C-alpha cells in the first residue's frame, strides 16, 4: 500500500485528479470506458461512483481519473493524490470507436467532460490522426491540461479564457472550414451541449446518468433511444448521437 | 470439520441460505464476471413480465441516506425472450434459478407460471406482488389480503413449482397478507420489497426520480425488515426469506435470529459485486448455530 494523500480537503466544484496505481486491468482500458469506485467503507455514500478514464499508463499499469468535487463520494476520493488500495471495478462499458481510415478528428468537451476525451485524443494521436480538441465552459477552468501532439482550443462563455463563446460555435466554424472532408467527431459534456452538438453533426457522444450497479443488472441508468431504453453502463456510455432521443 | 449450511426451502435444495434478490442481479450473467455464481444459494431473476415492458422514464435511481430510491418500473423483454436469451446462459452453472414473475392481472401471473413451469432450469417461482413502481398490478396486489390470495391461488393452480410470494412492507399489518397467501397455497414468503419513498432536488425543485416516487432499499430499511420478518415468523408456518439492507454476514444473522430461514441480498450487490460471496464466507465462519431463530 502506498497511497499518497493530498492533505487538505478541496471545496465543492474543485477539479481533482487521482492516479490509480497497480491496477491489473489498466492495459485493457480503452477511451470512453469507465470504472466504479467505492468511495468509503461504510454506508455513506452507499453506491459506487462512476469515473471516466482520463489517461492511462499501460506499462506502469496505472490510470488517472479527473473529476469535479460534487458530494461526499468525490470529496472522499479527492483526498487521494495517488492510490493503490481503493475498491475499483472495471473496465466497464463500451468505449469510443476509432476509424483508422479517417485522418481528422474533432473532440468537443464541455467542462469536466474533458476527462475521457484526453485519453481519446492521446490514442488518436498514436494512430497518426490529426486531433483538435475544443474545450468549452462557462468560465475559466482550473484544470491541469497538457495537449501533446494535438491542438487544444479553449473557449469560455464569459471570455475569461480563450475565445469568448460556446464550444458549438467553434465546432460549427471547424466543420465548415473542413470543406466536407471526412471527420470523426466525439463529444462529452452536459446533456444540453451534447444535444447542441448532435444538432450540428452526427457524432459519438459519451453520456452520463446516475447508476447503481454499473454492470447492466439494475436497469437504473436508462437513456431513451430510437430502439427503446438503453443502459448507459452496459450499452454505452458511448452512443451514436443519432440513436438518442434528445 | 466441514460446516454444512445447505437447506431445503419450499422443496428447493440450496447449498447455503443466501440468494441474490430480484432486480439487483439481472439474470445472473451480468454479475458472472465478478462473482462465482456456483457459490450462491440461489439466483432470483429480475422480474419477468408476460409481454415486453418499457419501464419508467429516467432518472430511475436516487441515493438517499444509507439507501437507494429506485423506480425502474419492471422493464422487461418479456418471458419469451427470457427463456430464449437469458436462461440458456445459466445452464452451465450449478445454482438454483428462481424466476420472479410480475403480472398485471391474476390471469397473467397464471400464464407466466404455466410458461415457466415447462423449463427444467427453473427451480421455483417468486411472485412479485409488491413492486411499488408500476401503475397496473404490482403493489396493489400485495396490499390487499384478498387480492394477494387470488393471485397466489391462480399461480398455484397453474404450476407445481415451489411458490414464494414476495410481500410489500407498504401495509398496516403485514401478517394479514402473509396469512392470506399462506392459506392460498404459498410455499414460502419473501420480505420485504422496497418501501415507497420520495426525494426532491432542492436546486431544481423537482423530484429526483422520473416516476416521482420510488422504492427505498439498502441499510436504511433494515430495522423495518427485521421487525416485519419477526412479526411474520410468528404468524405463519411456511418458511420466510428475509431481506432488506443486508450487506454483511452479521446483517444476515440478524434476519435468521428474527425468524428467516434464508436471506436475499439486493442493494449490497451494487455496492460490492462480491457482497453475496463474502456474506456466505462469513456465515461458514459463524457456523449453523447462529443461523437459527432467536427466542423472543
Automatic annotation (TrEMBL), chain B:
Compartment(s) where it occurs, according to its Swiss-Prot or TrEMBL record: Cytoplasm
Gene3D superfamilies recorded: Aldolase class I
BP GO terms, sorted: 'de novo' pyrimidine nucleobase biosynthetic process; 'de novo' UMP biosynthetic process
Active site: 131
Signal sequence interval, chain numbering: none
Pathway where it operates: Pyrimidine metabolism; UMP biosynthesis via de novo pathway
Assigned protein family: Belongs to the dihydroorotate dehydrogenase family. Type 1 subfamily.
NCBIfam families for the chain: PRK07259.1, pyrD_sub1_fam
Record's protein name: Dihydroorotate dehydrogenase
Name of the gene: pyrD
